[in-house]
Amino acid sequence: MEITDDKLLKIALVTSLIGLIGLIIFTPSIEVKEVKIEDINRGMIDEEVSINCVVSDVKSSSSGSSYFITINDGTGQMNLIIFESQLSQMQSNSLDIEDFKNKKVNVVGKITEYNNEMEIILSSGDSIKILNK
Fold it and tell me: Domain range spanning residue 85?
């Protein structure tokens, strides 16, 4: 059997379609890993994680365009960074950043390192949710 350009094109198209269908089917089942703050390390940089924690402090940056939130899950504490784009998304959903203070929340964000400290950057404006006690 001779492989012609036409047959090779058909094989490539079928393979691509199978791959796309697989992505569509399996993508909703991919979940963010839930972690404890004490387990976060440099090997997790750029990973998206979920943390159930309490917001213990809310501070605005000097420009007022971003917020630094201290979160604590009982195993440790770290900073959660909320940039202007996430903040505007939260405000469009009628959420005030101060409403989260002293509340138990779930946050989803990406692990980063800044000045030798591990931090988490909020993924989007709807990636922080108050949990019922």
Answer: 33-130
Does residue 120 share a domain with residue 104? yes
Mean pLDDT of 118-123: 93
**What whole-number distance in Å separates Cα of residue 52 and Cα of residue 76?**
12
8 and 56 both lie in a single domain:
no
Per-residue pLDDT averaged across 51-71, rounded? Answer: 90
Q: For the chain, how many structural domains are there in total?
A: 2
Q: What is the pTM of this model?
A: 0.72
